[in-house]
Design a protein that fits this description.
By secondary structure, this protein is mainly α. Helix content is about 70%, strand content about 10%.
């Protein structure tokens, strides 16, 4: 997730205070990992330094004075370019799962036990996401679907790799 570009997108919608940006980010994108206030303001500072946003005059409020940030044309251009670019397709050809299996085999450790443990962890997460999909709002349901599809692909890979462990062990030890 690109925090700077996400904040630019939120600012294109309307000029906002850092507090409001954090709230909106957490609401839509921070599922389980809220954005720290320090990161919001550090990112806004870098965006201002780079000419992507302009801080407004300090405004009095209930707490400390706050600035409303406005996206610049350079910020809009960067955001539009980012939005138009496709996300690099995943998965990569080298994954942590694969690395752990190969290292377990190279070191004479029980790769099948690792795969069984990983399968159990994936199934637990799938149950959590299935419940979220069933009971949550549409945004959560769509995010849960995305996660579930990735986990299903991982499980298929885990099953296929488990079935081929002997052949893989022979190849990596050769």
């Amino acid at each position: 997730m690109s925090v700077p570009l996400t904040l630019l997108g939120l600012l294109e919608r309307e000029p906002s205070h850092g507090y409001d940006l954090k709230r909106d980010y957490d609401t839509f994108f921070g599922r389980g990992k809220p954005l720290p206030y320090g990161q919001v303001y550090a990112t806004l500072g870098r965006l201002a330094r780079d000419g992507k946003v302009v801080p407004g005059e300090a405004e009095p409020g209930d707490g400390p004075e706050r600035k409303r940030y406005v996206i610049t044309e350079a910020g809009v251009t960067e955001f539009e370019h980012w939005l138009a670019e496709p996300v690099a397709p995943e998965p990569t050809l080298q994954s942590v799962l694969f690395t752990k299996v190969v290292l377990a085999l190279l070191l004479g450790r029980d790769a099948e036990a690792y795969l069984d443990t990983q399968r159990a962890a994936h199934l637990r997460r799938m149950r959590e996401l299935t419940e979220l999909r069933r009971t949550g709002p549409l945004v959560d349901a769509l995010l849960a679907d995305h996660g579930l599809f990735h986990l299903e692909a991982d499980l298929r890979w885990i099953d296929l790799t488990t079935a081929r462990l002997d052949a893989l062990a022979a190849e990596v030890r050769a």
